[in-house]
Amino acid sequence: GAPQDRSYMVGEILCRNEGIIAEGGSGIVARSSVDGLGVAAKYWNMLTEEGREWFVNELDIVEDLLENSPELFGSVLPRVVAIKRDEPFDSVLVTEFVGEELLCSSNEIRVGGVLLGWEESEAVFKAGMEAMEALHGAGVVHQDITRRNMRVGREVGENGEVRWRVWLLDLGLATRAYGEWQLEWDVKGICACLGPRHWEFSLEMET
């Protein structure tokens, strides 16, 4: 059924809190599990009125995409497990916990703490661009692409082929009303985190 139909599970999910993943002005994200599936549960922490507006906006965008672009979930956005809307103080968004943490310094990229080689870094960069373009193709601009708002996964196919995937997180600032500069801002976000300047060390190691 629709994620909203599973809102009864939210209380149980929050009770299984396995630790805080992230905390900021727009909410707290806690690690949990349901039916053996690792999930991330985001709820508003009531720090700021602005933060509440971001979270409500995220729920609006997610529900709109679930209706109009469901193919994005599981491919470039985490799958939605449950949504509970009880504004203003008790709304929760539960998504599948995906991928590994991304770390990008001035000349290297690490995924889950593992240093990537040049070809792997280039593949992750392309996957990030594809994720952004898929979101734009659905008529939504992210506006807050940072390393904290991306998760990266390495998948191996039946024939041994390797595919890198990037999931975009946190749609609190996302919008359907945008101009050219917002599109460029997303591109700059991907390049700032995953662009070629981060591959220098990996290239030196391979030559």
3D architecture notes:
This protein is an alpha+beta fold. Helix content is 33%, strand content 26%. The chain has helices at residues 10-15, 49-68, 118-137, 180-194, 200-206, and strands at 20-24, 27-34, 37-43, 80-84, 92-96, 100-104, 109-111, 114-115, 150-156, 162-168. The chain has a five-stranded antiparallel sheet with strand order 1-2-3-5-4. A hairpin with a 2-residue loop joins strand 2 and strand 3 (37-43). Helix 3 runs antiparallel to helix 4. The longest helix has 20 residues, at 49-68. The chain is globular, with a radius of gyration of 17 Å. The chain starts with 9 loop residues before the first helix and ends with a helix. The mean pLDDT is 86.
The strand line-up of the biggest sheet is: 1-2-3-5-4
**Total number of beta strands:** 10
How would a crystallographer describe the biggest sheet? Answer: 5 strands, antiparallel
Write down the oligomeric state: single chain
Silhouette? globular
Structural class: alpha+beta
Q: How far is it from the N-terminal to the C-terminal residue, by CA?
A: 52 Å
Low-confidence stretches: none
Spell the H/E element sequence.
HEEEHEEEEEHEEHH
